[in-house]
Amino acid sequence: MVPLFYNARSLWARRLSTGLTVLGLGLVVFVFSAVLMLANGIESALAAGGDPANAVILRKGATSELVSGVERDAVRILATDPAVASGQQGEPLVAGELVVLVALPRGEQAMNTTARGVEPESFTARPEVRLISGRRPRPGTNEVALGRALVGSSPDATLGGELRFAQQRWPVVGVFEAGAGAFESELWADATRLGGAFNRPGYSSALVRLRSAEDMAAFEKRVEADPRFTLEAKPEPTYWAEQASGLATFIRVLGLFVSFVFSLGAVLGAMITMYAQVATRIAELGMLRAVGFRRRSVLASVVAESLMLGAAGGLLGALGALTTRWLHVRTLNFQTFSEVSFGFTPTPGILLGALLFGTMMGLIGGLLPALRAARLSILDALRA
Amino acid sequence: MSLEAVPAPPPMVRLEGVSKTYRRGTVEVPVLEAVDLAIDPGAFVAFMGPSGSGKSTLLNLISGLDQPTTGIVEVAGRNLAELNDRELSDWRAAHVGFVFQLYNLIPVLTAAENVELPLLLTPLSRAERRKHVAAALDVVGLSHRVGHRPPQMSGGEQQRVAIARAIVTDPDLIIADEPTGDLDRKAAEAVLDLFGVLHHDLHKTLVMVTHDPHAAERAERVHHLEKGVLQ
């Protein structure tokens, strides 16, 4: 086996072309891993905060709260279910919630924002929603609390500011966080006041907190079978994962396609570099063959060298992608027609995948030059 | 008391009816014709002749880098035509040391690492390899240049490193193709002195191709080649 430090030093000896190739590979790996981190961030943002003991009740067949409707009577009936948890005063932890889109100004344009009409139990049933400044909106008023991702997204979207939509004024009295979940991109107001402003007497959904997540399956069956309404229940994490899947899949597929196209260029770059490495070292390779190294040793040596290039590119790209974890992006979730804020969320799997992707590009780029090196005639190589 | 004749040792190199023809397009170019030759173990043989006379081709056949068109090439009792590419590689690693005109050292490796290369094909441990490398560099008088890389050395020193690489595995046969062709007179003398040590003190079989009559004088026997025919 030809020693690996021979390859490492040969790459270092031609560090300009090596560096440029690693940079090219690294950029592709950066796009690849950033896209996966982005898709993961969307899923985390939308799916986070879902509590497995919480059930979301929607009209049967509705794919999101926006296209769902739940009668007020149905919410009262749901509150009588034996599996429903109780609050500190013994009240059933069931909240009717109304979801509408409001247009908040941003520059000269408007952004669609999800406004959630809530009841006091909405906060109690979701312990992950915590006020980080101000207070909760008082029931029966137009007061709103902002998810922290909304703060600053519109001129008046700050604590103490006053939003205007549905021809009414909505003072901001609190800012909350929700474990980086989708609620952080929402504004919460009193359900009845919001329903009045939008002429919506019913709710979009109901939130039911069960005594235990283990009661969920039986509860889902009871809701499904109840002849008094045509509703369905699903665990809150399942609901949010479904909301995330469309956008995350779209970004993932588009991003991977772009990465694939870019990778062709990077593989060509690696191939050109490795062909140049072989071409400038033909006499060395001929000597190695003459003194007894077999064809496969020379092949393995050139492949190992291109793997080094690829691994270095993978590492560079993965490290570059890691720096994006402090960035946040807002985009429209076309399943809910509202903007959602999310970050680039790395996982060990994505970073490992990035390294493998870079190494794989190096391998593919090095195969043909390695074959050429292994097939060299010793006499021709020694004369080079 | 009876006197029995001691049988002569088999030759290290035996060529019988060896010819070599290269094909250039549709034209066949004969390079060697019906060469018969025997080189004894421990001999120092030089081949001379004008360019294109077939000297290097003969060397390539003896060292297993090329195969004859017809005839038998036997080295250390082994008919090289019986070996495939992989077996020839292993055979060269075990039996042949090479000294090239342009040294063919790897510039990114140190002198010691260059010398160690053929030992990587042996089962020796790292410590044993280091011992062999040190001994080989000592023979060529370059113990003080162990950590230097070829670009930091003179041509003569580089060729001595190449000689250390050729002897480090203790091969049966050392092949030298124009070993002094790229050196000044003083460096060439040092290299030829070293060949003298390998021949006289270490009893190595040396086969050298050279244009230089002064270099050829150091050999025990000089063969002349003219248009592919051994004179």
TrEMBL record, chain A:
Protein's organism: Pyxidicoccus fallax
Protein origin, superkingdom: Bacteria
Pfam families to which the protein is assigned, alphabetical: FtsX (PF02687), MacB_PCD (PF12704)
Protein name: ABC transporter permease
A Gene Ontology term for the protein's cellular component: plasma membrane
Residues of the ABC3 transporter permease C-terminal domain: 257-377
PANTHER family, alphabetized: ABC TRANSPORTER PERMEASE, ABC TRANSPORTER, MEMBRANE PROTEIN
MacB-like periplasmic core domain mapped to chain residues: 18-225
Record membrane topology: Multi-pass membrane protein
Transmembrane segments: 253-276, 297-322, 350-371
Database matches in InterPro entries: ABC-4/HrtB_transporter, ABC3_permease_C, MacB_PCD
Subcellular location field: Cell membrane
Keywords: Cell membrane, Membrane, Transmembrane, Transmembrane helix
Automatic annotation (TrEMBL), chain B:
Highest taxon listed in the record's lineage: Bacteria
GO molecular function: ATP binding; ATP hydrolysis activity; transmembrane transporter activity
Statement: the UniProt record of this protein carries the keyword Zinc: no
Alphabetical UniProt keywords: ATP-binding, Nucleotide-binding, Transport
GO CC annotation terms, alphabetical: membrane protein complex; plasma membrane
SUPFAM superfamilies (UniProt xref): P-loop containing nucleoside triphosphate hydrolases
InterPro entries, per database record: AAA+_ATPase, ABC_transporter-like_ATP-bd, ABC_transporter-like_CS, ABC_transpr_LolD-like, MacB-like_ATP-bd, P-loop_NTPase
Protein name, entry field: ABC transporter ATP-binding protein
A Pfam match: ABC_tran
Domain ABC transporter: 13-231
Family: Belongs to the ABC transporter superfamily. Macrolide exporter (TC 3.A.1.122) family.
